[in-house]
Amino acid sequence: MASLLRALPRRAAAPQLTPSPAAPRLLPRPRVSPAAHPSSSLSAPRLSHLDARGDAAMVDTTPKHSSARTARAAATVRLGAAAFAALDETANAKGSVLVVARIAGIMAAKRTAELLPLCHPLSLSHVAVTLRGDAERHEVHIEASASCVGATGVEMEALTAASVAALTVYDMCKAASKAIVISDVRLLEKTGGRSGVYRAESA
Fold first, then answer.
1. What is the set of domains in the chain, with CATH numbers?
2. Could you tell me the sign of the dihedral formed by the alpha carbons of 190, 196, 202, 203, in that order?
3. Which residue among 55, 88, 134, 171 is the active-site one?
4. Among 5, 27, 100, 103, whose CB has the most other CB atoms within 10 angstroms?
């Protein structure tokens, strides 16, 4: 019997099956809530200066009602020690830097529509520009305000005034330093119009 068992062929062992990697599961794409993600494309605001075809266009303000509008903007000019010393009226060959820059900012606000192609010409009621020197930081802090009664806001006029005042400081002090930096050009506040009141956190 033992010899008979030895003569019988042995059955091959069953092959060991290795499990195949599981197919990746396709998870459903999560739905984005505009309320939870206000910056998502679902809630992205439409650019007002583009028409239905995506072409640049001037906003039609005909249907809008005139209302009181105000805006404040700011800019900072970092001069460095040598250029800051040139702010002294007797030290600058072009005259009083801050006085000239203030007038330049006011003039620029009145010509904003000539500089920005899609900006409406406005009948400004008031423009003011103030410049304050910071001797510790060697900086000039600029604030501009504009107001009008009209169908569109005066944010660009205030921003233009602050920007051109800063550029004027740069121009009048560049002989003392080429490393002058203009920074932090920003809107501080606006009132009036359909969007209501806006105030920057740092305002």
1. 67-188 (3.30.70.640)
2. positive
3. 171
4. 100
pLDDT in tens, 8-54: 556 555 555 555 555 556 555 544 444 444 444 445 666 665 656 66
Residue 9 CB contacts under 8 Å (≥ 6 apart), including other chains = none
> Rounded CA gap, 86 and 95, in Å?
10
Contacts of 88 (CB under 8 A, 6+ apart): none
Alpha helices in the chain (DSSP H): 2-7, 81-85, 97-110, 112-115, 155-173
Pairwise CA distance, residues 90 & 103, whole Å: 19
DSSP string for residues in 113-156: HHHSTTPPP--EEEEEEEEEEETTTTEEEEEEEEEEEESS--HH
Q: Of 160, 98, 97, whose CA–CA distance to 124 is shortest?
A: 160
Q: Is the CB of residue 183 less than 8 Å from the CB of residue 169? A: no
88 classed as catalytic = no
pLDDT in tens, 128-178: 999 999 999 999 999 999 999 988 889 999 999 999 999 999 999 999 999
Q: What pTM, to 2 d.p., does this model score?
A: 0.71
Helix, strand, coil percent content, the chain, rounded in steps of 5:
25, 25, 50
